[in-house]
# Entry
Amino acid sequence: MDVETSPSDLFDLGESAIDALPFGLIAVDIDGTIAQYNAYESRMARLPKDRVIGRNFFRDVAPCAAVQEFQGRFERFAQGTGDGAESFDFLFRFAFGRQRVNITFLRSAKTKQIKILVNRYDD
# Structure
């Protein structure tokens, strides 16, 4: 996340501001259905937005994340209330290669969505 954007600000940004972020942002409901998918994440994951919006993140878009290390953490995090954050490192295993990332889950009392921030490590 850049210095100018606080975690709570991410819940108030419009689409163009979300697309301008220098990291991946995926907004999902507590069941994992994708509501937002920014341009950075679209480029890095090589998936156009129109193919992911409305689909289930774990089942349809990133089945490599359907493991306890990621989906299990997400499900526990989604049960919480109010503002919250949790970060951890993860290795995405895509058909085109692996990507080491830092994942941050953000929850706000303002919305039922959870923001998944994806910061890639340079390997």
Summary: Residues 68-78 form the longest helix (11 residues). The domain at 7-120 is CATH 3.30.450.20 (Beta-Lactamase). Residues 1-5 have pLDDT under 50 and may be disordered. The chain is about 25% helix and 30% strand.
